[in-house]
Amino acid sequence: MDSFNTEKLNTKKLQPITWNLDYGWRLLATAFSFALFGAGTLVLGSVFHLARLIPIQQSSKQLWIRRSISKGCRFYIKIMQWMGLLTFAFGGQQVLAKKLHQQTGNLLIANHPTLLDAVFLLSLHSNLCCITKTSLARNPFTASIISMAGYLRNDDAGFIEQARHKLARGETLLIFPEGTRSSHGYNLQFKRGAANIGILTGCHIVPVIIQCTPPTLQKGKPWYCIPDKAPHFTLSAGEVIIPASHVNSAKPVTIQYRQLTVALQKIYRTYLNRLSDLNGKVNSEEMMGSKP
Amino acid sequence: MIQTKQDIMKQTITVMQELFEIESSKLQPKARLYEDLDIDSIDAVDLLIELKRITNKEINPDQFKESKTLEDIVDVIASL
Question: Does A158 touch chain B (CB under 8 A)?
């Protein structure tokens, strides 16, 4: 009985120390990751600038640039994983990658819980055309990469026409329908950009569902606000969405944008609620199992 | 036939109800297009096309873009 008590005491004493070490290490590694990201974008940006001088076709240059971005993202995630900053699982990596590449000329959409979502998606697809918001296109770190990779800006007047052109050429577009990182938990609020593209081009929409537990790198949180334990990311693809089957085509397109936006929001809320129910179950089972 | 501002307001409100299914109680002259009525830049393009069709007037897109409220739109059309 006595030995049991001391054992209990010891673990109690020890636990905060190991926890602190892990926390301290992750805080340091997080700072390093941010610096690495900045440095990475600067290096890639400069190399892409130099690539302007190489007299090869613009389209093959763009392909090369997008592949480099994809490899860079894969490398970045590997480093973060290696440093113990995160773990991840793809809803069957082969299945997910295949689904993303399957058809050309479609629109990928994803929820946006953290800063790393685009990095994960770019790492999975070697020729993705991102639709970016103005602030990123103006950010000195990302601006040149965005223009050299031929990404679209959602504030361009002819943005839908450009999207149509790219889809027709077989490119896969990526948009975060929330327009920025989530700030309503699972109660996602979509802007209409994704639905505008879906209705006006008729392209198929592939929904990617991203989960991060515990949440980290959320909107409005400073970089040093890291969770108590390393977050686990899961990415999975849902069923392909055909815009026409979610709207009343007899209505004006302006109504159809709204109908499709509501439908997409509903699809995501359903997926996320189902996932959180599932996770809740697993967690409670783990708790039950851990009891002697 | 001379259209009064009231006529134009009526027409504009009808168009908005058709295009965006906005409750009529929200369609006040001072209602802000983006903040109050949730009309984005893509919607504005469709709105302009429909207003041109229904009023039979050549509305200048740049002038139209400057409109912040429902009243502003009516003023632009009335000035033509």
Answer: no
